[in-house]
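Lab manual, section 2.4: Encoding a predicted structure.

Procedure: take the sequence of the chain (201 residues), apply the prediction step described in section 2.3, and record the output as structure tokens. A sample record is shown.
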Amino acid sequence: MTRDLRRLCAALMCIPFMTLAAGCPPKDGTARNDRAGATPGETGGAETHPEVRGLDPAAVLSRTEMGTGLVIEELKLGDGDPVWPGGVVKAHIRAWAVANARMFDDTYAKNAPVDIALRNAIQGIADGVPGMRTGGKRRLHIPPLMGYRFTAIRGEDDQVLVPQASPLIIEIEVVEIRPARFVTSEDSSVTDRPPEQAPPR
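Recorded output:
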């Protein structure tokens, strides 16, 4: 094998298979998303969307590609006990929709971390947060089937902030692990509601 061919093969192996986008919108639903994995043609990535600004690739400590299409990038390690599946966290979030290259939420700018019940959250967050510790920070690349599959998120002026089924990029920093009693309702800022079914005639 020639030197040039070896270099080409090495470059192709470095191309990520799935990198997706994230975000945390206003309250817009109560039911959890389906636990379905992404399928070919239903994922998109930050690397293939350079118009998505505000991401710092140098901050990534490690990167894990899950079989569902979810990509977890570790940005900062925390301390203490880990977040358990289905737990509740108080967290800061920055969120982007890849489909329109738009940051649609930033709790740092508002100085207002949010409580997130993982059992009610979109699947990308429910699967991407467990294992984090207080003070830890991750970037989640979330495929459409694990994000807002059924819902377009709109702002106060009814402008679409997150197109339905857009890949998402969510940076999440755990401020505190909360007792489950702090969030007891199905009301959450990171849920996705399936379409209403027409009643039988």
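Check your result against the sample. Strands lie at 62-65, 71-76, 88-97, 102-106, 114-117, 137-142, 153-154, 160-162, 168-178.
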